[in-house]
């Protein structure tokens, strides 16, 4: 009897009996894997929310530029007003034709020469006037001879009166003749003096001593009283700077205030002082003029420009090195350390310049932390790491 044919094949392989157990085990593995993935995802999310932001904060703090700052405080500084203006002669004297004029025969001075009061600067042809003067001088001689004759006749007649040879009437006639001759002499002398005076005015002379700034005449030129200015003088060679100041600055200066003047194109510094302050303000420019007297110097050329530093007293101001002060189209400014170590722009006004640095007349009270260097690489609102100057120096 064949028993193998009666045993079911499913029992032989065991596949039918083991399928439910394998399926349960696979489901458990899938659940465990899903939970593990979920835990990992939650962990990554929490790290990105807390750990990542802290790391970024630490990284940004580490990357903030380190800048040197200082608290300037306030120091006693000499208040200085900077101004510009035009150079001119303090007392300018135009010289022209005083007499009737004529043809210029000689010019004795040129621009850049010094002249004395009354010195002849140019002469005008006087050949005709000289002949007129000679004729008048001859008339004076004739009148004087007539007077001498009349006086002699009168003297002789006076001696004969006592003897009765000459009447009193003859004496009166001779006396009148003598007086008329004396009058004619005075008239002739006056005419001669007038002509000589006119001839002397043909010379172009210096009314005052000074420095010749301009010459506008040449030999052979015909000049008259309508010819205008032939020479221009600076009396005693004195110059001035006509400095233009705003209303507020003009109120802080006075006559006698010391100044330093530097002509444009030179490095020469000349000492001067204000000798006149304009009593009015120009309604258009809102400026007035402070006239600064200067002695003669070859660097001073009327019509040129110069800058002036006017010392208008002392006061308290913050002093910064030049590296701390920046400039753009809006003017001078500095960077200060604001809240949360953010760079803040602060507009300032610069006063005097000294070996200690630049004095800040407005914009700072002296308690701010001011960026001393590298301000040109910063921008408003940028986070920085401030380092006080004393710390950087000790390191």
UniProtKB/TrEMBL annotation:
Q: Where is the composition biased (Polar residues)?
A: 1-16
Q: Which domain of life is it from?
A: Bacteria
- CzcB-like barrel-sandwich hybrid domain sequence ranges: 101-227
Which GO CC terms are listed, alphabetically?
efflux pump complex
| The YknX-like C-terminal permuted SH3-like domain, residue ranges | 318-385
Query: Pfam families per the record?
Result: Beta-barrel_RND_2, BSH_CzcB, YknX_C
Q: Where are the transmembrane segments?
A: 29-50
What ranges does the record give for the region Disordered, renumbered to this chain? 1-20
Q: Which residues form the CusB-like beta-barrel domain?
A: 241-312
User: Which UniProt keywords are given for this protein, alphabetically ordered?
Assistant: Coiled coil, Membrane, Transmembrane, Transmembrane helix
List the Gene Ontology MF annotations in alphabetical order: efflux transmembrane transporter activity
Query: Which residues does UniProt call coiled coil?
Result: 171-205
Which family is it part of?
Belongs to the membrane fusion protein (MFP) (TC 8.A.1) family.
PANTHER family reported in the protein's UniProt record: HLYD FAMILY OF SECRETION PROTEINS, MULTIDRUG RESISTANCE PROTEIN MDTA
What is the protein name for this chain?
A: RND family efflux transporter, MFP subunit
